[in-house]
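Homework help thread (please don't just give me the answer)

Our assignment gives two proteins as sequence + structure token strings and asks us to describe the second one. The first is just a warm-up. Here they are:
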Amino acid sequence: MNSPENQSSHPKFLSLWPTQFMSMRLPGSENANPILKEFILSLDDKKSDMTVDYTAYNFFDLDHPAVKWLQQCCNRAILDYATELGIDYSLEWTLQGWANINRLGDYHNLHNHPHSWLSGTYYVSIPDQKNAQTNRSDLNPGAISFFDPRPQANMNAIKGDGQVDPEFRKLPANGELMIWPAFLHHLVHPNVSEEARISVSFNVVLKWKPQYTPI
């Protein structure tokens, strides 16, 4: 055991309980998105309430070239996410996906994704909300918000403290992929455009192995 006189007098700083968030623009999205948009709209024509009934099917099981492209991109991104975390062993997972269509006034309530390791969303078509007609200045049309998983961690924060803002808000772009821990609570603000907001969300469900157990 180190005695007090052998311990360094210099402060040691740790970043505890980090929450890793990943965002990237997928190469090839300019060509893939119009095809994905047409395909998702055709699915919506065949199935009423498709966005709400997201457990009824797995988007990535559908036999379509653009879906397979997106699946490959997501799997590659998940590997990059795991590498950034420092995971140096093999992972096996299943992608469970569903398409979302938010029309005028549609939104998603605060929620997280139980029984999954990671969650993510790929943005196929995001309407331009800059000229949206709103009655309030504090609205965030079409944006997605993520919230600090530590309740009330900002209560004693002061100016310049990184804990001061419990919300991270982002307006997605076409072709953007986001990945985050599935426990993280998030919501989607209302679409105030006449144009539909189209995305594909997914969960990363690990195929359990004994080596996943922390020791």
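The one we have to describe:
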Amino acid sequence: MSVKIHPTSVVSDKAKLGVNVEIGPFCFVDEDVEIADNTKLINNVKIKKYTKIGKNCTIYDGASIGNIPQHLGFKGEKTFVEIGDNVTIREYCTIHRGTSFDDGITKIENNVYLMAYVHIAHDCKVGESSIFANNATLGGHVRVGKNVFIGGLTPVHQWCRIGDYAMIGGGAVVTKDIPPFTRAGRNPAKIFGLNIIGLRRSGFSNETIKLLKEAYKIIFLRTDVLEEGIKLAKSELPMTPEIKLFIEFLEEKSKRGIAPEASKKKSKDESLEE
């Protein structure tokens, strides 16, 4: 089957289209765009230059991918958007190119599902099999792990990190990092224990979940200082891959800091933020 392009669409001769690509009515595909096999642009989709889209993706009405970043320091440099395989991008999503203030790439891994009106800003990285509900919004330079769920109407502050298998409730305001395996909500977002349902759905064993629960208790509930909790967890728990991932995330240098645990008293800084 050859490429199908609706007669109302504009596709640059310098775009590279794979086998079985379908481009519906009123779409625009710029030069220096690559679209791999079996990907479909449904209607009114705009794909700007320096964008690569993988195989078996479906992009719905009004989506705009590869536009220049909303960054006052951007001077027209050559930066990119990269989208993996089996990605679904629903109506009116926007995904912007990277900047020279980071690695220059906005990247979405395989099997990601973006619901309507999601915004992915410049230099963001979204891990595989993550799901963003309607109107979830990432500021610049956000790092999202794999198998993350972000609820609707949820903004994430620039430079935040969200760890693997985390779940963020709808309407939360994420201003600090959300560790892997946890669930978060409220404004500003706080951590409410582990994402137990998500972990079970993802096939984690009861033993692994039990260990993660213990790590959470040690780090966030038994001590008031994060570093002390991490030190205790290292001394008391086996370093399984999951515990190692959890601790390494907490130890990694962060521009935003770690979101507070919900049962802890508010700090002076948190009161000021609200």
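TA reply:
I won't write it for you, but here's a hint about the kind of observation we're looking for: The radius of gyration is 20 Å.
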